[in-house]
Amino acid sequence: STQSTGTHLLTQSLSQHNKKLLQTFTMSSKCAGCGKTVYSAEEIKALDQTWHKQCLKCEVCKTTLQLSTLQSFEKKPYCKSHVPIVKHTTVANDVMSQHVKQAQDVASYANKTNIETQKGTGEKPTQDMF
Questions:
Q1: pLDDT per residue over 75-98, tens digit each?
Q2: 3-class SS at 80?
């Protein structure tokens, strides 16, 4: 009877272990596109999320994307044609911006007034009249 009790406990233990394994392999996630359950056979992992293959679409044109065609911006999927382009803004009081503007103003003034100066001396170059 001790042997049958031991066999029963071993069987029960294996059964619980198998349930845990089964849960591990059949764990499903929610699709980032539609919110429904995604099973491993139909999933695609992109942008730190799980998607149905057919739900990974461009935010703008809704074209279905693959990992090879996926572009991302702020963790959202886009096709190559619609991925937003980051435009840098300039700050008006930025020191480098002020220096660049001053240099452009000086160059512009020199071109407008046709000023020519000898390098290093600040004098106008002499012109030969041969």
A1: 999 999 999 998 876 665 666 667
A2: coil
